[in-house]
Amino acid sequence: MPESNRSRSSSRRIAAAILLLIPAGITLYSVAQHIETSKFNEAPMRPVDPPQVVAAGKVLYEKHCESCHSADLRGKENVGPNILRSQDALVDMHGESLEPIIRGEKAGLTNHRILTEKDDVAAVAAYVRSILSEIGSQGRAPGDALRSPNILVGDAASGQHYFEAKCTRCHSAEGDMKGIGKKISSPKTLQSAWIRGNHFGVPVPVITATVQEPGKPAVEGTAIHVDDFLVTVKLQDGTLQSIRRTPQTKVEVHDPLEAHRNLLPTYTDKDIHDVTAYLVTLK
Amino acid sequence: MKLRIFSFTAALLLGPLSHAQAVSHEDLMRPLKDSWLTYNGDYTSKRYSSLTAVNRNTVKNLGLAWVAKMVPGNEPAPLTGYSRVNAPVIVGGEGTEQRSARGGSIKGTFLENNGVLYVTMPDNVWAVDARSGEVLWHYFWKTRGGTHIGNRGVALWHDYVFFETPDNYLVSLEAKTGKERWHRKIANVEGGYFSTPAPTIIKNHVLAGVGNDIDAPMFLKSYDPETGDLQWTWYVTPQNPGDPGLDTWKNLDAARHGGGGTWVAGAYDPETNLYILGTGNPTPSWQTGLRGDGDNLYTCSLVALDVDTGKLKWYYSTSPHDTHDYDSAQVPVLVDGKFKGRQRKLVMTASRNGYFFVLDRVTGEHLLTSKLSDATNWAEGYTDKGGPKTNPAKDASIGGTLISPASGGTVNWQPPAFSPQTGLLYQYHVDSYSMAYLTDPDPRGAMGLGGKEEVGMGTTGSYVLGIDYKTGTPRWRRKLYGTGFGGGGLLATAGGLVFTGDGSGSLVAFDAANGNPLWSTRIGSVSNAPQTFELDGHQYVISAVGDTVYAFELK
Fold first, then answer.
1. Which chain B residue's Cα is nearest to A259?
2. Coil, helix or strand for B141?
3. Alpha carbons A177 and A157: distance in angstroms, whole number
4. Where are the transmembrane segments (chain A) (predicted)?
5. Among B147, B433, B522, beta carbon nearest to A41
């Protein structure tokens, strides 16, 4: 359940968290790139063909194949199928699967006699494999990583209205948000940053815990570990202290970003787009 | 000389285990008790053990019995303080390169039979002495590649072990020695297929499923456990003109490339002879230009197959027309119980998409759908069949769409547990959020999982739920201290306990009735579902953290 009450100090910490984003030029690795899958998600291994063969294959593909299978090999509906998701193409290593298809020898494809010259057929197969090597293990279209559609689809005036109504208790356009659109030049990064209250590549604000055992002075420090049985905090002097929890132990955790996370269920996508459109104008 | 001493010791250790006890069909039909013979414990998939020595009162006395670290690869494992013999390493596989001797973690279920545990990581199987943690043999598969994301474990039948490899082979070993009997290619690794499931063995059928993220046809195959001969193949999506479900796709080409992975083991109902499993997401996953606006059957569904023929008997679409990679490949649980005053044979599942379902498992009749959390926002209302109705406004968009759960789901592959004592289904539930950006606006759509970028926005809560199947609402909701799933799945016992990782470095036991924490041990991030078995009158509780197995017993 979202908690609606925010303490003033946590609001200040959120503001501080936003400020932490500000160092310009920082490489927000995770945002700058497409999210990659696990390193264990390996694309199928294919032999690398000589570049001149691939280049020759490209010319032949454009001349003989593109009209049906399109320039990016993703096919045309009811004309030519998507080669990049064809099992015949995916399993091909040295032309053994693709070449009979290109030559029109596969059953049902006898009208497909596009090329017959041995080297030409091999070159087109090599070109197809070279494009397949770009799709990774999860079917990314060639060039997908390079495309970056403009995510600014919101209305800045509505965003300003929203900001002034909902955000100014903790933030201000002339204060902590001043110049935010310049300091975070990528709108997508900026959008992530304000939704989360901080972002990848930026130090996460410190989570603290206060532990109160009966009859003992309260212990406060950076929360290292909290569970139902044990609490470990790092004290101001840098030492660690662990405390066994009993039903009488009171543990309060102060996570500066919790309040921001609790806003997640309240946003509409339009709110998000509008606020981002507004924040990018704060130059 | 030293070597001889070791082999003499090995002979002594192996001696008493040479009477490997064959696993019969009758053994596999029994409810989970002293042994653990199939992925989900027994065919009902309840992961409910009737052992009671470890219970609400005694669990506080649970202490370490042994620890064993599994060392993958084909080099002999170093002898450690708790290992006294170099176990034989049997090497198989069709790969020619040394590309698979890599770290991994244990995300599978151990099988236990007659004092031997079978433990896996991708490309590796170990037989482990359940009393001591000593490795008895280690089988290593030289891979040709493929996604090495996890392995869910082996299957046992007669004196044989069966498992799947990331490069899509079904391999059968001798249980006693680890020697290979045969292997069969399930699918082409070059075609993007990879295999993680634990096979399920029912009568004389070895059921092997697959995964693939490049729009390939997905299927479940049945093999003869004796000969390795293929018996039948069930395709998840229509492959030929006239196949049922074709009208839910844009065209036959779309259906043939429609995905629907079979990467998690299901449950078996002997009375109807139905194998019931959940299927994965349709592909392309995030865009529907190629696959149309229909329900895209039988992806993201519970399906019931006749185990002898592989024919579909009924289905229920738990995520009709999925657009968020919300596989429905969660373990379905079979329960006999009262529903609306009437005794029924039920099947239930808490799905990755945040919804919980109860069906009549004989007919497939839909009985209940519930939304487990208010955070879940991708659907609006229900279809006329009672499934969650995809809200197109929550599809990935160029400006970004805030979705909950993130595509990883409120839960993922982690198996749930069900206790007949409490009538509750135990499952994780994470209220996660992400921004889903459409990066490829081509109207034809992308392939596989491509064409989008997903950026995590955090979670507002991570829980273990005790779901009352009669109402579809959680009777208790225990907050976990991490931001992800507690661990690799759950275990319920007749001792009134639920065991799980807590997502923040401990294996814990909750009171099954109310979720109160009763016991905890700080062994690290639990990576598989805790299990229990009984040997020599001792009840063991076992679980894995990364590459290490921990066994506990009452002290």
1. B460
2. strand
3. 16
4. none
5. B147
- Chain A positions touching B145 (Cβ under 8 A) are 42, 44-45
pTM, to two decimals: 0.92
Test B448 with A191 for CB contact under 8 angstroms: no
Contacts of B460 in chain A (CB under 8 A): 2, 261-262, 264-265
Mean per-residue pLDDT over chain A, rounded = 84
A173 within some domain: yes
Asked if residue A29 belongs to a domain, the reply is no
Do A76 and A93 lie in one domain? The reply is yes
Please give the DSSP secondary-structure letter assigned to residue B122. Answer: T
Written as six digits, the tokens of A110 are 């006898």
pLDDT tens readout for residues B332-378? 999 999 999 999 999 999 999 999 999 999 999 999 999 999 999 99
Mean pLDDT of B238-264: 97
- B6 by Cβ neighbours in 10 Å (0-12 / 13-18 / 19+) ranks as middle
CATH superfamily of B25-383+394-554: Quinoprotein alcohol dehydrogenase-like superfamily (2.140.10.10)
Q: Is the per-residue pLDDT at B158 higher than 90?
A: yes
Number of domains making up chain A: 3
Q: What is the ipTM of this complex?
A: 0.92
**Residue numbers of the domain that contains A224:** 208-255
- At B9 the pLDDT is 43
Tokens of B258: 């429609």
B472: helix, strand or coil = coil
Model pLDDT for residues B57-94, shown as the tens digit of each residue = 999 999 999 999 999 988 778 787 677 788 999 999 99
Q: 């250790």: which residue's tokens?
A: B13
